[in-house]
Structure to design on (67 residues):
């Protein structure tokens, strides 16, 4: 079962949704399409938000910067 997460890259104001096979952990790398090409990003923070009508929301903060 896929886990749908809201994602924010490098503190950008725009937020996208993406499905993962399993929830990434802080410090892990994820690869995802950005502006038409795959980009490797690192997970900075995972935030579990309270439930809504559709269930709880998970927010991932990602960065393209080297840690």
């Amino acid at each position: 079962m896929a886990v749908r997460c809201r994602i924010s890259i490098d503190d950008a104001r725009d937020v996208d949704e993406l499905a993962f096979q399993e929830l990434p952990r802080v410090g892990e790398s994820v690869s995802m399409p950005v502006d038409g090409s795959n980009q490797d990003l690192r997970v900075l923070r995972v935030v579990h938000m309270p439930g809504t009508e559709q269930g709880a929301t998970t927010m991932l903060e990602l960065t393209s910067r080297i840690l």
Residues 3-63 form one domain. The chain has one domain: 3-63.
